[in-house]
Amino acid sequence: MSAAQPLKGRFITVEGTEGVGKSTNIAFIKKRIESACIGGEKIELVMTREPGGTELAEEIRQILLTPRSETMSVDTELLLVFAARAQHINSVIAPALARGAWVLSDRFTDATYAYQGYGRGIDITRIRQLESFVQGDLRPDLTLLLDAPVELGLARASARGELDRIELEKKCFFEKVRAGYAAQMQREPERFSLVDATQNLCDVKNQVHRILADKLGL
Ligand code: T5A
After folding, report:
1. What is the pLDDT of residues 66-107, one digit of tens each?
2. Cα–Cα distance, 114 to 43 (Å, whole number)
């Protein structure tokens, strides 16, 4: 990606700990964006996710999330996350934004700060260096952070069936991840909008709609 390339679209990310309701709320956001018009025109929406979003990046996702007997080092995990992201940005996100499309991503680099930084304990400055190297100036325009106690999200996630390599972590790991998201939001309060994900789905949806109206005029 050329950092100098002007990006015309909007980049929206949805974040939060396991099972907090990201996929569910992304469906609300998609509907809202697809029904909107800007200057009399429909918005082109690109839906994507991390890790993943391209064939190659989805293969890296499999490596990251498949439980295995060999322990993955934290550095390997960090570099795989950014390898997938480099592919995702170059193939999907940057071209979409450059042509004026809106990109809605289920997770992005805030997840790396939260999971690899706060969860695994990797020095934040190293993550920042990789972020600049891989992303240049690319940052989300808006990040919706869904927040709920860790137990609630884990209960929702486990109700769905088999757990992946990261979901198999202990509760204290996800407490650190949740604290990491809170720290990210404190650092950039303008970019983040907090959603109380403990409420019932109808109330959560109303919160999301209010944020989209306030922040994006939808
Ligand atoms: N990762 C990712 C890193 O470590 N570093 C990185 O840089 C990145 C990008 C990706 C994993 O990779 C890690 C983090 C993750 O461990 P994932 O699939 O994105 O995995 O993450 P998950 O959290 O596992 O996603 P899930 O699909 O499990 O959870 P969602 O999307 O948050 O939850 P959702 O919407 O599927 O909801 C779960 C259940 O709860 C219900 C839903 O109906 C569903 O059944 N639900 C509610 N029920 C009642 N009230 C509400 N308000 C509800 N909201 C949802």
Report:
1. 999 999 999 999 999 999 999 999 999 999 999 999 999 999
2. 31
Separation CA 132–CA 47 (nearest Å): 23
* pLDDT tens digits along 184-202: 999 999 999 999 999 999 9
Domains and CATH numbers, the chain: 10-216 (3.40.50.300)
Tokens of 159: 């109700």
State whether residue 109 is helix, strand or coil. helix
CB 193 within 8 A of CB 144: yes
The residue whose C-alpha atom lies closest to atom 7 belonging to ligand 1 is 112
Asked if residues 173 and 119 have their Cβ atoms less than 8 Å apart, the reply is yes
Which of 14, 20, 146 maximizes ligand 1 atoms within 8 Å of its Cβ, making it the mutation to test the pocket?
20
- In 3D, which of 135, 125, 171, 157 has the Cα closest to residue 50? 135
Tokens 């391209």: give the residue. Answer: 54
d(CA 57, CA 134): 14
pTM as predicted: 0.95
For the Cβ of 106 lying below 6 angstroms from any atom of ligand 1, the answer is: yes
DSSP 63-95: HHHS--SSPPPHHHHHHHHHHHHHHHIIIIIHH
User: Which of 29, 106, 107, 146 most suits a substitution to test ligand 1, by most atoms within 8 Å of the C-beta?
Assistant: 107
